Amino acid sequence: MVTGGTGALGRGVCRALLDAGAELHVPAFESEVPAGFGFADEPRVELRCGIDLSIEDQVVDYFASIPRPWATINLAGGFAMSPLVETSLAAFESMWRINVVSCFLSTRESVKRMREADEGGRVVNVSARPALVPTAGMVAYASAKGAVATMTQALAEELADERIWINAVAPSIIDTPANRSAMPDADHERWPSPACLSHTILSLVSPDNLCARGSIVPVYGRA
Description:
By secondary structure, the protein is an alpha/beta fold. It has a single domain, classed as Rossmann fold (3-Layer(aba) Sandwich). Helices cover 40% and strands 15% of the residues. It is built from 7 helices and 7 strands. Strands 1-4-5-6-7 form a 5-stranded parallel β-sheet, with helices on both faces. A two-stranded parallel sheet has the order 2-3. Strand 4, helix 3 and strand 5 form a beta-alpha-beta unit. The radius of gyration is 17 Å and the shape is globular. The two termini are 29 Å apart.
């Protein structure tokens, strides 16, 4: 199960999972198939549009309607930056709901379904470099991604005896078309690509991952 699977990183992760033989369930916030998502007709992909992962009832209903997942990859989230005194409470709460609430609800409902069989499972969340490295002008975003990191480590301890390994990756700025457009003069070759990040994520969700849990993996490339 891949939240945020229609985004730039999500598409890279979906491609890598399909290449590895996985069957995917992808909830999308958009009401129609997003432009650029090239897997809607792939028989091993079930895309469901119109799912708001920050609304509890929608998440509960969605997870009840799909097969029990082996792994959930929580890529859904958002980014905004502004200095402290220019950050409204609404903006702060928006970052919290988009990044933290969506991750919490998806993880909770995933674990409920994973417990239907005594086979363990895997969850990978997405924190961010500003949650680990102090960064000015990102108080709302860094606070939200810091909460994702803390939640990851707390749940890794809680679920260890059930062999449900929970980890997170913490990217720097990712090499996507939108980021290149926003920072045209940057050295884009130093940024980690979605394909590179996908390799790390797949290693964490693999059944071959027999011991890594509670990690917040820096995935900065050369950025």
